[in-house]
Design brief:
Elements: E1 4-8, H1 15-22, E2 32-34, H2 37-44, H3 52-69, E3 75-78, H4 81-87, H5 91-94, H6 99-103, E4 108-112, H7 133-147, E5 153-156, H8 162-176
Parallel strand pairs: 1-3, 1-4, 2-3, 4-5
Helix pairs in contact: 3-4, 4-7
């Protein structure tokens, strides 16, 4: 049985860092790991921000393609198709899909809460993700709203302790996903 796990959340939630860390864990070394497409596209062409509709359609289509390319292999992904709906709700109708259909693509969704809740000493925008703390928290609410109906949604609270956040993710995956692998 393959597992299709999405990590989602607002900027500064630790998605990329958690995926990097999980790849060092024996249980996940053989899994495919997908980086965040939005960041990749913006690094290549910052002008995507000016083509909002086209950008989210492109993210959605590339997400579908890369997931299809690996067949039945298990994966960890920095965002999934549903994330495009948080940023651009019109993508649902534009792509002729539904939330239920997209939820079915993923066995487990891990929503990481943003460090923006902890203040500016912990959360800082970067050259690609330019959202301030208020905007990051607003985006977190949008992500929660679009993923809330997923049947296996795990919400991991933010923490000033990176080790604690990693432990929470690993414990949740161990109890929900890894128990089925043995």
């Amino acid at each position: 049985m393959s597992h299709r796990i999405v990590f989602t959340g607002a900027p500064g939630s630790g998605k990329t860092a958690i995926l990097t860390w999980l790849r060092t864990r024996a249980s996940f070394r053989e899994w495919v790991t997908f980086p965040e497409l939005a960041r990749q596209l913006l690094e290549l062409d910052p002008g995507w921000r000016d083509r909002w509709h086209e950008w989210h359609r492109e993210i959605y289509e590339r997400t579908i393609a890369r997931e299809a390319a690996i067949g039945d292999r298990s994966f960890l992904s920095d965002r999934g198709t549903v994330d495009t709906f948080a940023f651009h709700p019109e993508t649902v109708a534009d792509r002729g899909t539904s939330l239920e259909r997209e939820y079915a693509r993923y066995s487990t969704v891990v929503l990481l809460e943003t460090a923006a809740h902890l203040g500016p000493s912990i959360y800082a925008p970067d050259a690609i993700r330019t959202e301030d703390a208020t905007e990051a928290i607003r985006l977190e609410q949008l992500h929660k709203r679009v993923w809330l109906g997923h049947p296996d949604l795990i919400i991991v609270p933010t923490s000033v302790s990176w080790a604690l956040k990693c432990h929470r993710v690993e414990a949740a995956l161990r109890s929900r996903v890894l128990r089925n692998l043995h």
